[in-house]
Automatic annotation (TrEMBL):
A biological process from GO: meristem maintenance
Gene name in the database record: LOC107460669
Organism: Arachis duranensis (Wild peanut)
InterPro entries hit by this protein: AminoTfrase-like_pln_mobile, MAIN-like
Residue ranges occupied by any Aminotransferase-like plant mobile domain in the UniProt entry: 52-326
Name the UniProt record assigns to this protein: Serine/threonine-protein phosphatase 7 long form homolog
Length: 350
């Protein structure tokens, strides 16, 4: 299912961590996490449902500690050329289907194309006496917090980008955007960056990545998390690992990954009766499910990544043929939003 080294073109043996793994066997990435305390007020629910982020809001209070050694070991297997993990048994990756099931985000809709230091203190809790307009302002602040810290977090760790202001100003229109595809684009970009041996800080929706690993790889399941509800990432609420001895844990996890067999990966974890019973009906609407298998671009402002599900057909019940050569999208991956905001139309024209 995978490419040989001659068919891969990016970072191979030059800067990819896999090329120097023996020199840095215990390399462990570090993550940024803004510990916010903004409470989900029931008066926000109407607006959260309007913008398509209600399930994420319910998940916000149930996040879990990131297992940095586990994620570090998986990073070694990530290939920026294909946006897949190259495992001993073949390729696998996080898809729009996983986004829908783990975070409950919409994947159909329009593409999603400053430092607020006192933001958190100002909007931590909505007053009991608040009128409708005040509640609306606090709901906007809560939505900005979800976007800036849970879905599109960056390495600053304590800032929310002003790019979200035009979106929250028009709450009635926010529900028409594909937040799921934007989140996946950002996760892909963050994974591609940290696959470089010179990058050690990882940002992005990392709880999504860890939840995907736990659901797909039974050998890495933590004990005591048998029951689950919706969205599926909430299953790991309360997970709190021992943070000591990170380096040796990275090395041990890498060895466990090296020994994985096809039976150690769950290709279709969402088809079980237990999952079907808790899944939200909206996720299974044809307008969403039809996009899960699309080979298409994923857009988050200047970030454009490729949804290469043709390389992981068994995750959708298909039979995997020999993949085509890796698609060279370096011209897109080099864009980060700097140098003006008019790049997007001109790039698509060529």
């Amino acid at each position: 299912m995978g490419d040989d080294s001659g068919r891969l073109y990016r970072l191979d043996g030059v800067a990819h961590i896999a090329g120097v793994i023996n020199d840095e066997p215990q390399r462990c990435i570090s993550s940024m996490r803004w510990q916010q305390k903004m409470r989900l007020d029931e008066r926000y629910v109407l607006y959260l449902q309007m913008v398509g982020l209600y399930h994420l809001a319910r998940l916000n209070d149930r996040w879990f500690r990131l297992d940095e050694p586990l994620v570090s070991a998986f990073v070694k297997r990530w290939r920026p050329e294909t946006h897949t993990f190259h495992m001993p048994f073949g390729e696998c990756t996080i898809t729009l289907q996983d986004i829908a099931y783990h975070l409950g985000l919409p994947v159909d809709g329009h593409c999603v194309s400053g430092c607020l230091t006192d933001f958190h203190e100002t909007f931590e809790e909505c007053p009991e006496w608040a009128d409708e307009e005040t509640v609306r302002r606090f709901a906007r602040a809560y939505i900005m917090m979800l976007l800036g810290t849970q879905l599109f977090a960056d390495k600053s760790g304590n800032r929310i980008h002003i790019r979200w202001l035009p979106y929250v100003a028009r709450l009635e229109e926010m529900g028409g955007y594909s937040w799921g595809s934007a989140v996946l684009a950002w996760l892909y970009r963050c994974m591609c960056r940290v696959a470089n041996r010179h990058v050690v800080k990882l940002d992005g929706p990392l709880q999504l990545l860890q939840s995907w690993i736990f659901w797909r790889f039974p050998r890495f399941w933590p004990d005591g998390f048998d029951s689950f509800s919706w969205p599926l990432a909430s299953r790991w609420s309360g997970y709190n690992l021992d943070v000591s001895e990170k380096g040796p844990r990275v090395q041990m996890t890498r060895l466990r990954i090296d020994m994985l067999q096809p039976r150690d990966f769950i290709w279709m974890p969402y088809s079980t009766p237990e999952v079907v019973q808790v899944v939200h009906p909206e996720v299974l609407e044809p307008r969403h499910t039809a996009l899960w298998r699309f080979v298409t671009s994923l857009i988050y402002f200047a970030v454009v990544e490729w949804h290469q599900v043709d390389r992981v057909l068994p995750q959708f019940g298909g039979v995997q043929a020999r993949p085509r050569p890796a698609l060279n999208i370096d011209i897109l991956m080099s864009k980060d939003g700097r140098g003006g905001d008019r790049w997007f139309p001109s790039q698509l024209q060529h």
